Amino acid sequence: MTITKDVKQFSRSPSHLLKRAAQYANLIYMGEVGKSGLTQRQFTVLLAVDNNDGKSQTELVKITGIDRSTLADLVARLLAQGYLQRKRTKDDGRTNAIRITTVGKKMLKMAQPGAEEVDRQMMALIAASDRKAFIENLAVLAAEMDKIEEKDPPKPARKIKSRKRA
To answer: SS3 of 78, please?
Structure first.
């Protein structure tokens, strides 16, 4: 394949273009909020917890669309930084309720303007007449993903047993 043909193929690939758009959004985010040390996904988790205080990690997976193992890692990091707290629920001793701390709320408040700027800059690149349809189409993709995950939830990664050496 020639380079020109490769470029044309990528320039018409929805999956490639969505990946590039996500990379661009992350680039803007890092310029706006990154110096705070809060990643885009950490911001997403803090915002989700702030809006859904006391929800379980399983519920946060559904709310954010972040896979179970990645969300568990993010929560662990945010716990270590003092932004979140985790407490066993009274109803089910196996389930943790996740809450945002005062420090987490402050960090979220600091990051919020930068995160909103990401959306503003992204949408500014799209003609005003196309913005509503753009958001609606992205929502369709997200809703389809939700349906897929409801029918066939991702399985937790299998642990690999280590072999004992003689």
So the answer is: helix
